[in-house]
Amino acid sequence: MELKELKDLKDQKLNKKTLGKPMRIIFGRTAFVAVAVLLQLAVLMASFQWLSDNVFYIYGGFTVLSAVVVIYILNNRKNPSYQMAWIIPVLVFPVFGALFYLFMELQPGVRMINRRLQQVTKETEPYLRQDPAVMERLWKVSRGNGHLALYMQKYAGFPVYDNTYAEYFPLGDDMFPRLLEELSQAKRYIFLEFFILERGDMWNAVLEILKQKVKEGVEVRVMYDGTCSLTLLPYGYPRQLEELGIRCKMFSPVRPALSSYQNNRDHRKIVVIDGHTAFTGGVNLADEYINRKVRFGHWKDTAIMLKGDGVKNFLMMFLQMWNITERKPDDYGSYLIGPDWKIPAGLNTDGFVIPYSDSPLDEETVGQHVYLDILNEARYYVHIMTPYLILDSDMITALTFAAKRGIEIIIIMPHIPDKMYAYVLARSYYEELLLAGVRIFEYVPGFIHAKVFTSDDTKAVVGSINLDYRSLHLHFECAAYLFKNQAVQQAEQDFMDTLKLCQEITVEDCRNYPLPKRIVGQVLRLFAPLM
Question: Is the pTM of this model over 0.70?
Answer without folding.
Answer: yes
